[in-house]
Amino acid sequence: MSETKTEEINYQIVVCGVGGQGVLLLTDILTNLATDQGIKVRGSETHGMSQRGGTVLCTIKVGPKAYSPLIMDGTADIIIALEKHEALRYSPLLKKDGWIVVNTKELLPQSWKLDKEAVETARKNFEDDINKITPNVCFVDAEELAKKAGAVIAQNVVMLGAAAACEDFPFTSDQVKKTLEKVVKKRFVDLNLQAFDNGLEKGISA
User: Fold this and answer.
1) Rounded distance, CA 67 to CA 110, Å?
2) Pairwise CA distance, residues 99 & 138, whole Å
3) What pTM, to 2 d.p., does this model score?
4) From CA 56, how far away is CA 41, in angstroms rounded?
5) Fewer Cβ within 10 Å of end Cβ, the chain: N or C?
6) Domain extents for the chain?
7) How far is the C-alpha of 72 from the C-alpha of 95, rounded, in Å?
8) In tens digits, what is the pLDDT along the chain, a chain of 206 residues?
9) In the CATH scheme, what architecture does the domain 10-205 have?
């Protein structure tokens, strides 16, 4: 990330996935990250259920114009999708030429499993459909990178690392790491820092 004055930051983030993937924890990390820099932030779980198997959507606005956590269609700067098909579900929120950071791991929410034909169509056309939305896409095998860090549960932090490598992401990697050290339980700090670095490296090389 380039150096950015606090008062100039206005950034809108969509975090989506399936219950049990750590969407809410990732949102908590991002809101704490903004607060740690003294930047106004509004965040909310605005749709879905957070129980395992249900779809989850969280929205975060950062900056002086963050009056409400709600994000209108065509205005989000980035979508961080922990489940690949959820990226498509919420893609209308993304602004033109915004970023999509998408986990290539499939973990279908319960609602998708009811329509097998729709699932097969989505699987077949997934990458083409994503690339039609924006030229700025980063595909991440978050499961593999989390395993390399030491625990598959750290996929959400891998995705944060990949997002941090995107152009115009409003926080530096050092700022993210300091917040991780504060938010994550002490015994898991090193694991999560490695997961973040693995995602960051993937994002930079994408």
Assistant:
1) 33
2) 8
3) 0.89
4) 20
5) C
6) 10-205
7) 10
8) 444 444 578 999 999 998 889 999 999 999 999 999 999 999 987 655 545 567 899 999 999 888 888 899 999 999 999 999 899 989 999 999 999 999 998 876 666 556 667 667 667 788 889 999 999 999 999 999 999 999 999 999 999 999 999 999 999 999 999 999 999 999 999 999 999 999 999 998 87
9) 3-Layer(aba) Sandwich (3.40)
